[in-house]
Amino acid sequence: MISVLEIIQLAYKIPSLLLMILSIYIIITEIKNRNAHFNTQFYLIIVCKLSNEIIYNITVFIFVLLPKWGFYKKFLKNHDWTATIYFVLSTQQITFMFFITLIISINRYIAVKYPLLYKFYFLKSKMVIILLSVITLSTIIGLGNIFFEARFDKMDSFDTLIPSLTSESAFYYRIFYQIFLFGIISIATCTFNTMAILTLRKLNKNGIKYKKELNYTIYSILTFITLFLVEILYVCNFIVSIFDFVSLMYPIYFLFNMVLDLTSIGKFYFLIYSS
């Protein structure tokens, strides 16, 4: 059964995802038409970011929402490999989200700090290599989950199935990438955002640049808040796993996806506003 919160979530998520698809189409079309405004590697990064977020939402829809609404529950319960596939895909996609956020921060920092060297640092060939490297690394981290036992556990209090890793060693692997790796990426992202803001303040001479500084400040604050909340929820999830608070698993998982919505959809609309 669909809850009220899920109806609200679908009400903003479906139009947003459709708008993301439209944005990807427009950006790719403009790049092909050699539109000068879109002829920067920044928009290539945005296309990759939006594509990944669309795929992630599809993954959650297939493996979490549809089973919660009563679709193929028995199949998932009887086939543990489906949980493994979910963890491989979701881990890869979330890892890519963190990396692409860092790349955007570096891109914006270089653009304001070293504008004359921007094209040198972000040549198309270099950007392709960077993106392929990030995709490869994210995929490797995602594939790490195939070595751990996974299954869909039934949450009786919420009448739903939640994918979970049952291997004890998986706990340490999750600490590695969710706390240490994502934590380092988050710190680096916030650092580059802060340096970009400080650079913009030094260069601030007119109203247009002030608006740019204000927009970047808001974006940086939003990035910091969302990354901080994601890490907090990861810690909460570890606490739930350690003390076996099964009843809290789904609420934390739901909150986690809400925060990711803020990270992806919130930033997407802010990007449209500030463009």
Task: Describe what you observe in this structure.
Its main location: membrane. The chain is mainly alpha-helical. The protein has nine helices and two strands, in the order H-H-H-H-H-H-E-E-H-H-H. The protein has helices at residues 4-32, 41-68, 73-78, 81-113, 118-121, 124-143, 168-203, 207-243, 249-274; strands spanning 150-155, 160-165. A two-stranded antiparallel sheet has the order 1-2. A hairpin with a 4-residue loop joins strand 1 (150-155) and strand 2. Helix 4 (81-113) runs parallel beside helix 7 (168-203). The radius of gyration is 20 Å and the shape is globular. The two termini are 39 Å apart.
Number of strands: 2
Number of helices: 9
How many structural units, i.e. domains?
A: 1
What is the SS-derived class? Answer: mainly alpha
Radius of gyration: 20 Å
Task: Please identify which CATH superfamily we are dealing with.
Answer: Rhodopsin 7-helix transmembrane proteins
Shape: globular
Lateral arrangement of strands in the main beta sheet: 1-2
- Biggest sheet details: 2 strands, antiparallel
CATH class: Mainly Alpha
In helices, the fraction of residues equals over 70%
H/E series: HHHHHHEEHHH
What's the end-to-end separation, in Å?
39 Å
Beta-strand content: under 5%
CATH topology category name = Rhopdopsin 7-helix transmembrane proteins
Low-pLDDT segments = none
What's the overall average pLDDT, rounded?
83
